[in-house]
Design goal:
mainly alpha, 64% helix, cytoplasm
C-alpha cells in the first residue's frame, strides 16, 4: 500500500518540507502571547481546511467556530462538526478527511491532537467493523494511517518502557489506618508490580498479527485524555462498545437480579455461595444453546447486509478489551459525566459481561463483574441520598406551610376575666 511508504504520511512531501522551512524561519519565542496567537492561527487554518473538505451546508458553522478565541476547543465541543465529519468519513487512502485527521494529529498543538483523539471511537469502530467483515483492506488505508500515527507517537513517548502498575500488598499496614512509624523488626517486602502494557515496537504498516496491539494502544491514548473528552465522544464510545459485545441475552442482567434477591435459607455467605454455584451450573448447561443462538444471529445479520453498520459484533482480544473497560469505567463512575453517558456505559458493561461469560474469558468476567457491582452500589447510594433529600425537602415544606397557616388563622379575642371578691 503506497499510503504507508512515504513516511506513513498521506500528505505530499512538499507539505513536510514547507513545515520544516516555517519552523526554521520562525524560531520559538518565550512570549506567551506569541505562543497563544500561533496556536490560534494553526487551529484556524486546520478548521478552514476542514470546512473546504466538507459539504457547503456544514462549512458555514465551522467557519464561525474558527473565529472564536479558542477555535480548537470550540470545534472539540461541537456535536454538529462531529455529525458532519462522521457522515463523510470513508477511510480510503484518497479520503480527504483521513488526510485532515492525519495532518492535524502531526501538529505540535495539544488541542489539535486532542481533537483528533475525540474522533477515535468513530474511526476505530468503523475500521474494526469493516476489517472483520471482509472489506477490502486497501479501502481502509486512511483509517490505518491515522491509527499508525497515534501508535507511533505513543511508542516514541514511552521510549521502549512498559506501562507498570503497583499492586497493593494487603499484608502491609495502610497509611490511613496505621501509624507511619513501623517496628524495627519489620522487614519491608518488595511491592508487586503488574505489567499493564508491554514495551511497544515500532510498526510502519498494519499487520493482521499486530492490529489488536495498534488499535488498543490508540484506545489507551484516548483513555489518557478521557477527562478532556466531550460528552458526545464518550457517549458514542459506549454505544460502539455495546455493539462490539453483540450480546443481548438475559444473562446480561443476571447480576442485577442476583443483587436484588436476598438470601432466604438463613445460611449467610455459605448459602449465597451454594446458590451461586447452582446458578453457574445451570448457566453452563445452557451455554451451548446460547452460543449457537448468538452465532446464528451474527450469521443472519451478515446475510442481511448489516456488517458495515455501527456497532457490529467483533472479536475482542485482551489488547483491545482492556482499554475499552478502562474507558467504560471512567464513563460509568466519573462524577462529572452526565447521566446519559453513565446509562450508556452501564448498558455496555453488562453487554460485555454477557460476552465474556459466553466466551469464558476469566479476566474480562472479573473486570465486568466489578464494574457492574460498583455501578449498582453507586446507583443505590444515589437513590438513598435522593430519598433523604426529598424527605428533608418535604419536611421543610410541611413546616413552612404549617407555620404560615398558623400565622394566618384568625384568633378570637379573649373575654376579660372577672374576679369576684368576697365581702
Amino acid at each position: 500500500m503506497d499510503f504507508h511508504h512515504h513516511n506513513s504520511s498521506p500528505s505530499s512531501s512538499n507539505s513536510s518540507s514547507t513545515a520544516t522551512v516555517t519552523t526554521t524561519q520562525n524560531p520559538p519565542s518565550d512570549d506567551p502571547m506569541h505562543s497563544w496567537w500561533e496556536s490560534v492561527s494553526k487551529a484556524r487554518s486546520r478548521i478552514h481546511a476542514l470546512a473546504a473538505i466538507l459539504p457547503s451546508s456544514s462549512a458555514e458553522p465551522l467557519s464561525a467556530l474558527a473565529d472564536s478565541d479558542r477555535p480548537a476547543l470550540s470545534l472539540l465541543s461541537s456535536p454538529a462538526a462531529y455529525s458532519a465529519l462522521s457522515s463523510s468519513l470513508q477511510g480510503s487512502a484518497s479520503d480527504p478527511l483521513c488526510h485532515w485527521l492525519y495532518d492535524t494529529f502531526l501538529s505540535s498543538d495539544p488541542h489539535l491532537r486532542l481533537l483528533v483523539l475525540s474522533f477515535l471511537p468513530l474511526l476505530s469502530a468503523l475500521y474494526l467493523s469493516r476489517i472483520h467483515h471482509h472489506f477490502d483492506p486497501s479501502s481502509l488505508a486512511g483509517f490505518e494511517a491515522v491509527l499508525l500515527a497515534i501508535y507511533a507517537a505513543e511508542t516514541k513517548s514511552r521510549a521502549g518502557k512498559p506501562l507498570l502498575v503497583t499492586i497493593p500488598d494487603l499484608s502491609q499496614p495502610s497509611i490511613y489506618h496505621a501509624p507511619l512509624r513501623k517496628p524495627s523488626a519489620a522487614v519491608d517486602k518488595p511491592s508487586s508490580v503488574g505489567v499493564l502494557s508491554p514495551p511497544l515496537e515500532p510498526h510502519v504498516s498494519m499487520k493482521s498479527t499486530k492490529r489488536a496491539t495498534i488499535v488498543g494502544t490508540a484506545l489507551h491514548c484516548y483513555y489518557a485524555q478521557i477527562s478532556q473528552m466531550p460528552s458526545w465522544s464518550k457517549l458514542e464510545f459506549c454505544r460502539f462498545a455495546a455493539g462490539w459485545a453483540g450480546q443481548d441475552c438475559p444473562c446480561r442482567s443476571e447480576l442485577d437480579r442476583r443483587d436484588a434477591t436476598p438470601v432466604a435459607n438463613g445460611h449467610g455467605a455459605n448459602g449465597s455461595c451454594e446458590i451461586e454455584i447452582e446458578e453457574v451450573a445451570e448457566e453452563m448447561g445452557n451455554l451451548n444453546l446460547q452460543i449457537q443462538k448468538s452465532e446464528f444471529d451474527l450469521d443472519s445479520n451478515r446475510e442481511n447486509g448489516e456488517g458495515s453498520q455501527k456497532g457490529d459484533r467483533i472479536p475482542l482480544p485482551w489488547e483491545i478489551l482492556q482499554p475499552v473497560l478502562r474507558i467504560l469505567g471512567h464513563c460509568l463512575l466519573g462524577p462529572l459525566n452526565p447521566q446519559e453517558v453513565k446509562d450508556a456505559a452501564s448498558f455496555a458493561v453488562r453487554s460485555l459481561y454477557a460476552r465474556a461469560s459466553h466466551d469464558l474469558v476469566p479476566q474480562a468476567i472479573l473486570a465486568t463483574r466489578s464494574l457492574i457491582q460498583l455501578d449498582n452500589r453507586t446507583r443505590e447510594a444515589a437513590k438513598a441520598a435522593a430519598a433523604v433529600a426529598a424527605a428533608a425537602a418535604n419536611a421543610a415544606t410541611t413546616a413552612t406551610v404549617n407555620s404560615s397557616s398558623n400565622s394566618n388563622t384568625p384568633t378570637k379575642a379573649k373575654k376579660p376575666e372577672i374576679l369576684l371578691a368576697s365581702k
